[in-house]
Amino acid sequence: MTPLRTFARGMLAAIFVAEGFNALRQPDRLVQRAKPVTDQLAPTLKSIHPRIPTDPKTLVRVNGGVQLTAALLLATGRASTPAAAALAASLVPTTIAGHPFWTFEDPEQRRLQRILFLKNAGLLGGLIFAALDNEGRPGISWRAGNLSKRAQRSTKRAYKTAKREAKIALLTARHALPTGS
Fold first, then answer.
1. Which of 1, 34, 111, 153 could cysteine-pair with 77, CB 3.0–4.6 Å?
2. pLDDT of 133-179, one tens digit each?
3. Are 29 and 93 in a shared domain?
4. DSSP, res 54
């Protein structure tokens, strides 16, 4: 990983390390704001598996743990694509729960929450870039297409070689046959 990529990923991950750690340590400060979103997610989580916790405090901690772990992976360049995808997925409910600017009556509060909402939208864009960044290496779709083309070429070469060798063997066999006595 280049120094610039390392620096950029570290900068992008920093907010998630700090906030993920805080959510794990002090989830109570986030529970009330998360409750509307966790209440909507609870039936879906229960339908996936009945033993998945649905209480807001646990979900805030799980989200914090995901953010902390994924941010550390992203910052260190380990499994950066899935880490960025996990952060992006965790950022959506966090943003909706944390900055519902459309619910505020006070114009100043609404403006502040809209700015924070848009900041998170910008972070989401950065995470999408980080998830798609393959550090100059070809992407999976190119690799799959290239592998297919190489397999086709290899098959054609093998066919041509087998055909040529069969022709040579036939000619050799014809010359080796005794001529009429």
1. 1
2. 876 667 677 778 888 899 999 999 999 999 999 999 888 888 887 76
3. yes
4. -
Domain end residue (candidates: 132, 154, 173): 132
Amino acid at 93: P
Amino acid at 84: A
Helices 80-98 and 28-48: crossing angle in degrees, nearest 10, is 110
Q: How does DSSP classify residue 52?
A: S
Token pair 């700015």 in the structure block, residue? 115
Q: Is 85 helix (H, G, I), strand (E, B) or coil?
A: helix
Q: Rounded distance, CA 94 to CA 116, Å? A: 11
**Rounded to whole angstroms, how far apart are CA atoms 162 and 138?**
33
Question: Strand, helix or coil at 49?
Answer: coil
Rounded distance, CA 160 to CA 42, Å? 62
Tokens of 52: 């998945």
Residue type, 152: Q
Q: What is the pLDDT of residues 10-25, one digit of tens each?
A: 999 999 999 999 999 9
Neighbours of 153 (CB within 10 A): 10
Q: Smallest Cα–Cα separation from 99: which of 87, 88, 110, 86?
A: 110
